[in-house]
Amino acid sequence: MNRVLYLEFERCIGCRACQAACRECGGHDAKERNYVEYIDFMESRQTFPMMCMHCKDPACARVCPANAIQITKDGVVLSAMEEKCIGCRNCTFGCPFGIPKFDFEKNIMYKCDMCYERTSQDISPMCASVCPSEAIRFIGFEEMMELRRKRAQSNLLQGKKPTEQNKWNFVPETFGVYTE
Fold first, then answer.
1. pLDDT at position 43, please?
2. For the chain, where are the alpha helices, taking DSSP H only?
3. Any idea where the 4Fe-4S ferredoxin-type domain is (predicted)?
């Protein structure tokens, strides 16, 4: 896999097509593994997609006493393995983003696996394949870097200058996996 999942939160229109597509993905048991959140529901209707960051050193995997959470050679953090998960829910408490959810009926954690069966074949994950506003894209590393440069230039052209408080507004939100 040599592409990344690229997010542009301000493009999200709150249609939740990504959630519906996630439910349809094979092996997801009709449960969405991504979420759409409101930035500040009391002040704005602006939404943003919330997905697993597939951290390089994932807290969910570190706190798992049964070693049920595996990381692929591509760096994708998978859901808990059914045969190993002991249902302790440490992963749900350990993730700082609140991504892993617990299925009380099956007694197992589930989370975004970046549609690994698809992405390992260089096919876009379900959420990215249906996003009408391109808030979620599965793109190559060079394209991501170009978008990142354009966004930083755009912010600067508009007279904005990064400060310590808003420096993250100048860096596109990206996550995913890139390996050469």
1. 85
2. 17-24, 59-62, 90-94, 116-119, 126-130, 141-157
3. 3-33, 43-74, 76-105
Interior angle at CA 79, CA 40 and CA 148, nearest 5: 50
The number of distinct structural domains making up the chain is 1
Task: Please check whether residue 23 lies inside any domain of the structure.
Answer: no
Per-residue confidence (pLDDT) for residue 125, from 0 to 100: 93
Q: pTM of this prediction?
A: 0.77
Ranges of residues in the chain with a pLDDT under 50 are 173, 175, 178-180
User: Which residue range is the domain that position 66 belongs to?
Assistant: 54-111
Question: Tell me, what CATH number does 75's domain have?
Answer: 3.30.70.20
pLDDT tens track for 116-156: 999 989 899 999 999 999 999 999 988 988 888 887 766 66
Length of the chain: 180
Does residue 90 belong to any structural domain of this protein?
A: yes
In a domain, 73, yes or no: yes
Q: Environment class of residue 149 by beta-carbon count within 10 Å: exposed (0-12), middle (13-18) or buried (19+)?
A: exposed
Phi, psi of 93 (to 5 degrees): -85, -30
Asked if residue 71 is part of any domain, the answer here is yes
Find where tokens 């969405």 sit. Answer: 32
